[in-house]
Please model this.
Amino acid sequence: MRLDELIYLLEKNNMAHQIYMPDGFHAEEIELNDMVCDSRNVRAGNIFAATKGEHSDAHDFVPCAVRDGASAVLCERKIDFEIPQIICKNVRASMGETASLLYGEPSKKLKMIAVTGTNGKTTSVFMMQNILQSAGIKTGIIGTVNYDDGCNVREAAHTTPEGCDIQALLAEMVKNGCGACVMEAASQPIMQGRINGTYFDRGGFTNLTIEHLDYHGNMENYFLAKKSLFDRFMKSDWSASVNIDDEYGRRLCRALGERSMTYSMTDEKADFFARITKIGIGGLDVEVNIGCIGKKDIVRLPLLGSYNVLNMLQAVSLAYSLGVPADIALNAMSKMPQIPGRLERYGFDSGAACVIDFAHSPDGLEKVLNAVRPVCRGVLSVVFGCGGDRDKSKRPIMGEIAGRLADDVIVTSDNPRSEDPDVIISEIAAGVKKVNRAHTAITDRREAIYEGLSRAGKGDIVVIAGRGPETHQILKNGSVPLVDREIVADWCKINGKEIVK
Model:
């Protein structure tokens, strides 16, 4: 696209901006390809979006971007540098819309499904992709674990990428023949404007529990951030699927009115209802009732946790609203593979087992331990920590939950970031002590996991919580490679154990 064409589209869409065109530059002669917001990734023909972060201002890197071939800059103030500039009030909030126009508004060419809520987004997204692809609809993913553009899958850097990166991913999905995209929509990126320029056909709401209050301040602001997904980013013929077992879900359902479908495990009048009839280490037998068509069926869901039944109901309801027959959706759920870092199970030839989960909030940890308890025939252990530079109030709460629900507690390091991990551990331990549960503190996460696995005998289960599929541990002086799943595999090699199904 030429720069003059982009400027025309900005004006046509009433986007507030100013243009600075230095002498000797002509918009109709400047070809643009991609937009990037990291100066290290600039290539010839790019627009460089000069975002402001907590620790740096990308306006300072414009000379580097120009040196590497940038053809134009999206910025918040006129820069004393001879390069065409699109000047806006807030680059982070504007670059998604600008990039959407640059890439031909890709979200309008896909069936777009967004999932928001505190917990369950990742599982719901994987379930939705599994159903749609079972129905013959090639489906991309933008989420916590990975980005899948229909041809290539790569590790995710953020749950919700920057606005220009979202649009580039969507454009690749269109190019690669995808008919749909399922995307996690976290609250902070929504408020920061990262999903601006992206519009959705369907939206799902999982639940709302204590998390990110260091950013939002209180639960009311947190809820309104989630609700804004439905208020601001939906296409004309949209609908939502809402968990009415959650108090905030019921509130959202009332606000959305006829736009919302409901799902529940407690209210049989919900549009999609389910109950668990049998629990085993290999999964759940679930009776599903789809009220709108009067259909009942039994599904063998090869995952643990009643909350995964709720995630399944959301995925099935959203797919059904898009025209996928219920039989196809339910059959896809019966073949659902394990999701990385979400109740990811490993059995050992000793008869013990471990479960790796991303649970890093009080609600998440409580749900995981409650999900595993019914299938644990022996000692239920938990190895976990809390992230640094994040909401400190949840640390003793999570300690109390671990002490109350597990038989053996090992408190360790998560991603301490700039904080002292031993201080974080002591704050968690204060909660464990409230319920008079003994605990072991081991700062080194690898050593802590080794210890937990070494204690486990036949019938015991060790829950390793907090980091799920993350590949690096974030420390004060940077990040180091660390994957919980690989630590488990290393322990097996060292101790001559074999992983069995």
Remarks:
- Residues 306-321 form the longest helix (16 residues).
